[in-house]
Amino acid sequence: MTCRRFVAHIWCLNPGATPAAPRDAEVLTPRYFRAVTTYRLDIAYDGTRFRGWARQGGLRTVQGEIEGALERLFGAPTPLTVAGRTDAGVHARGQVASFQAEKVPPADLRRALNALTPADIAITRAAPAADGFDARRQAVSRRYRYRLDIGAVANPFERHFATHWPFPLDRDALDACAALLPGTHDFTAFTPTDTEHVRFERRVLEAAWTAETEAILSFEVEADAFMRNMVRALVGTMLEVAASRRDLANFAELLKGRPRPEAGETAPAHGLCLVAVRY
Fold first, then answer.
1. Rounded CA gap, 228 and 135, in Å?
2. Catalytic: 87?
3. What are the pLDDT digits (tens) for 155-184?
4. Which DSSP symbol is given to 4?
């Protein structure tokens, strides 16, 4: 039904009334007739100066910065749904978020958002998505990378993006640990005891250590979903195996749902990056 027919229809129901002349189409169109569009954002950010992804009152967060920019563009609060919430200090190259809006966006939404967000956030893609697209619920896997600077002297250019580890390590032991991860396991030992999670099984699709350079070693892992601190706790525990502080059999036992205190330390946040989300 067009706007004019809608007004005529209402007048027919009450022929004694004289409909006021509409000022614009917005007045004619009831709220429930407005089209809602779903959008997808692909995002990269340097997490060094953020208190994580999730919006927190009074704190600088990635979600808070982007939602603030969206509110300026659309004139109303515009909440984001994100594929993976990252902790304070954790970076992202391939984060994905979705949102819905009624108002027509600027012609170049990506450019507009980048103009309104700080330099440590980059919107790499901004476009309409299929109706109902949900960045979190429709993701089939996430991929993370943890980087170690194993040089004798820390590289100052890597200090925000790789954890310095100048100690001896057994590379074969790291590879053996990674080889145990693909498949479905109970990762209770690798997430904080005080947690909101109710299901601790996760399906790991791929896990491997690779040498980026002589001084940079990286661990990449892809799974259907991750729990808080899971990758960092895995790395911290694998480093204990590589330093002969625990054996491979112990690491394998931890994958059967052992308590968190039995696993190793949580590796520092700045070495971790969300590199991809798959749909």
1. 18
2. yes
3. 999 999 999 999 999 999 999 999 999 999
4. H
